[in-house]
Amino acid sequence: MRNLCAAVIVALFHIGIPLTAFAQDVTLTSRDGTVQVSGHLLGFDGTFYRIDSIYGELTLDGSGVICNGPGCPDLESYVAEFSIAGSRTIGETLMPALIEAFAADKGYAISRKARSDTEFTYVLAENGKDVARVGFRVTSSDEGFADLLANEADISLSMREIRMEETALGKDAGLGNLGAPGRSRVLALDGIVPIVSPLNPVKNISLENIMRIFAGQISNWSELGGVDAPMVLHAREAKSGLQQAFEDVVLGAEKLTLTAGVTRHKSNVSTADAVSRDPFAIGITSFSEIGNARAVRMPGTCGFVVEPSVLSLKTEDYPLTTPMLLYTPARRLPQAAREFLSYLRTPPAQLVIRRAGFVDQAPALIPLDAQGARLANAISASGDEVPVDELRSMVERLRGLSRLTSTFRFKVGSSDLDAQSRSNVEQLARLIEAGFYDGKSIVFVGFSDGDGAAATNKRLARARARVVRDAVLLSAPTADRDRLTVRIEAFGEALPMACDDTPWGRQVNRRVEVWVD
Hints:
CATH architecture of the largest domain: 2-Layer Sandwich
CATH superfamily of the largest domain: OmpA-like domain
Radius of gyration: 26 Å
Helix content: 25-40%
Number of strands: 23
Structural class: alpha+beta
Strand content: 25-35%
Number of domains: 4
Distance between the termini: 53 Å
């Protein structure tokens, strides 16, 4: 505290402004009375004060200062407060279920008070005394980031990754680098799913044609072998994170834009409901909220068929898998918020996620014998570059192992892992440190797309496997390495998950899998 006080005095003398000039809502005085810091109280977590002062935002240990002014908290009846804002998809059902489960796990009584259609508060109490208040504002991913940047939320919920301009604004606002690995975490998984009515006879539409439909290049069902009727397009509102992800990742990949005349909806539920009742409709919704509509199967030109399922989303083999993200600023949150964030990684929280209809991140094993479709696709796609003998060698080396559902992929054109893969690194590292794989072998297996020479692709696949292995082991410093075996394998383009004739197909095929004995 004395070093901090000295730094404060030096800073104030350098800028030539006396402390008394700032009659704001709190004044923090060191216990020896030598230094006072005045400013606007931004928060108090029960231990630390956070104030906006003349020389920027400061976090001060409450044990070393005395607070005076109208903004000072009542230390005797302190109640932790934090706020959550953003995606309706995440915030309307899933996060309330997790807050309620967290309260039950801690033995807290819990009550909910609605303030409006989009705002509500949970109060957590122990022995009749309030211990925490959690405010919710459920709107969109866009508004969640805006609330975080305006210091009106502590946790932002998003169905898309933060954009560059938002990251820049966060740095300017003193929130740190919100795009850095430590500032976000994956809560659960969902998927962007094209849907039609069960009354629609068209069951298969390629992803390329999905793009062309929503870009306005295909407008009649007869162009896809259906009836002669115009297509009726449905999608989420423009500020929806899911819709933005669809336009950025799917349409943006081919530099296409959404056509005019699309019916917009405030929720995935209303989108799915409208599509299910119209045999000529097609829409975009989330996997968790398909409702009575029917998900479209997406065949590729090479014969592979992609469709959403819990397993294909958990492994990210479904190309339109979307992580459900939480973003937090680079500042200390109240202890109740930190405990809640820690709870989200526990097995009971993963069970709540599953029961709420979303895809959890609890790892599961898939035996080789249960992967017949993948092997059949590999055989059908084999040729001069990957002869059947190589496939036979791959099967022999993986025999007796099971694939872990955690899959690792990289950002497009980068050696950096994507958001979901960074989360997978932390998750696998924690399991290794906990001894979950003691006495077992963990094999990091690299795969590639089919673009280029097979020998080169195998070398690239091995390099990717090495990157993931090193990242996991670096994140597990307390693991007992003598109790498990870790190795890498690479099979290049031998086991494709999608057709290589599209950018998204090649991205799906460039991956690192984890196999365990």
